[in-house]
Automatic annotation (TrEMBL):
Belongs to the TRAFAC class YlqF/YawG GTPase family. RsgA subfamily. Its main location: cytoplasm. It is found in: Cytoplasm. Its cofactor is Zn(2+). It is an enzyme of class 3 (hydrolase). The gene is rsgA. GTP binds at residues 114-117, 167-175. It comes from Pelistega suis. This is Small ribosomal subunit biogenesis GTPase RsgA.
Length: 295
């Protein structure tokens, strides 16, 4: 039987089977490599459990890799909903990394600016996002305090897709989920009670079916770092779409756009067409990717 992984607790997974039932599942072997969003083939074990026999081919996989380890976020994701809030302040660095991570995995990024009801700090947040708007990344301004409005804005975008709510802690990812999938709240609370955390913060990635439309929404724990060491130079550059028209002018086909003579990107940078801040971000991510492994 086939199914889709809806959540993972260490080595254990919950799999929603094609007949609509949900089973606790496990996978044999040392390194599991199964993650939320995966389509799997399972063998039923008794009437409660299932064993994952095979992970079916992935359309894509969003993951990060730092110096010490790599971590899978989710598989088979159509779009990344990067949630930033008016308050607390979001990190430009993490936002840019999320965009690079998405594009390199062929996932479309959309920025959700949440908590626009906090009008005092709203103008500053909007201003900080203008650079991403110029890149052509959709930015949708929302507040979970207005549930009807939020649904009107988001549901059409979520139709027929698997979307991943992604971002730093306290940006409001789970609050958005709870508006769109009211029954999710019970699940989350149950889990934090069981763990005795008693906090709102999300500790596991989980996939939910949207009740009103066809589509899936994944909530994930807030992240504080997003290493991109697994990417090559051209993949990093994909996250900087404003470079592309100038890359064509580079003298060397394997130009890294850091120091080469005749580099179209550096020329555009000098002319103020490409933002210094963005180029610095590119350099930082690229140097991290090409740095030798540390032991
Ligand atoms: N004013 C305001 N507060 C909001 C809004 N959305 C969420 N919040 C509050 O922001 C806080 C954090 O919300 P969560 O939904 O738990 O944030 P999260 O992104 O899921 O956080 P993690 O699970 O830790 O990653 C909560 O206290 C929410 O009540 C909003 O639109 N406006
Ligand atoms: Mg959360
Ligand atoms: Zn160049």
């Amino acid at each position: 039987m086939q199914g889709r992984v809806i959540t993972a607790y260490g080595r254990h997974f919950m799999v929603k089977l094609s007949d609509g039932t949900i089973r606790q599942s496990y996978m044999k072997g040392k390194k599991t490599g199964v993650c939320v969003g995966d389509y799997v083939r399972v063998a039923l074990q008794g009437n409660e459990e299932a064993r994952i026999e095979e992970v079916l081919e992935r359309q894509n996989l969003l993951y990060r890799s730092d110096e010490m380890r790599s971590k899978q976020f989710a598989a088979n994701v159509d779009q990344l909903l990067i949630v930033v809030a008016v308050q607390p302040t979001f990190s430009d660095d993490l936002l840019s990394r999320a965009i690079v991570g998405a594009r390199s995995a062929h996932i479309d990024p959309i920025i959700l600016l949440n908590k626009v009801d906090l009008i005092e700090d709203y103008p500053q947040a909007k201003e900080r996002l203008s650079i991403y708007a110029q890149l052509g990344i959709p930015i949708i301004e929302i507040s979970t305090l207005d549930a009807n409005q939020l649904k009107t804005q988001l549901l059409p975008l979520l139709q027929d897709k698997t979307s991943l709510l992604f971002g730093q802690s306290a940006m409001g990812k789970s609050s958005i989920l709870n508006v769109l999938v009211p029954e999710a709240k019970a699940h989350t609370q149950e889990y934090s009670v069981a763990l005795g955390t008693g906090k709102h913060t999300t500790t596991t990635t989980s996939l939910y079916e949207l009740p009103d439309i066809q589509g899936y929404l994944i909530d994930s724990p807030g992240f504080q770092s997003f290493g991109l060491r697994h990417l090559g130079q051209s993949e990093v550059a994909l996250g900087f779409p404003e470079f592309s028209e100038f890359v064509e002018q580079c003298k060397f086909y394997n130009c890294t756009h850091l120091h080469e003579p005749g580099c179209g990107v550096l020329r555009a940078l000098n002319e103020g067409i490409i933002s210094t801040k963005r180029h610095e971000m590119y350099e930082r991510i690229l140097l991290e990717c090409t740095a030798p492994e540390k032991y």
